[in-house]
Amino acid sequence: MSEHTLAVSDSTFEADVLKASGLVLVDFWAEWCGPCKMIGPALEEIGKDFAGKVTVAKVNIDENPATPTAYGVRSIPTLMLVRDGKVVETKVGALPKSQLKAWVEGAL
């Protein structure tokens, strides 16, 4: 992870995502997932571009199986926008940065 993304685990998900102030973009990913690696740099840039407005949280599904199971994640990458502890929108699959940015801007 970098200064613009936050590694989140099953044990920290509630504090880091559900109780966070503002909008949180949660990326459910895995090391072996090609599309996850493709969108990684775009998510880094979104974290930088929206610093202070949006938190980009990354959950490695192999290391943290409870959270993706609880949220019904069936394929990756799965991206969720969370506000005030509730999932407001979900997207599945790799999207270009322009679409990801527009999706986040629409939720702000």
Automatic annotation (TrEMBL):
Gene3D superfamilies from the UniProt entry: Glutaredoxin
Any one GO BP annotation for this protein: cell redox homeostasis
Keywords for the protein's UniProt record, in alphabetical order: Disulfide bond, Electron transport, Redox-active center, Transport
UniProt keyword annotation of Transport present: yes
SS bond list: C33-C36
Active site: C33 (nucleophile), C36 (nucleophile)
Thioredoxin domain mapped to chain residues: 1-108
Site (Contributes to redox potential value): residue numbering on this chain: G34, P35
Cross-referenced CDD domains: TRX_family
Protein origin, superkingdom: Bacteria
GO molecular function: protein-disulfide reductase activity
InterPro entries in UniProt: Thioredoxin, Thioredoxin-like_sf, Thioredoxin_CS, Thioredoxin_domain
Similarity comment: family membership: Belongs to the thioredoxin family.
Protein name, per record: Thioredoxin
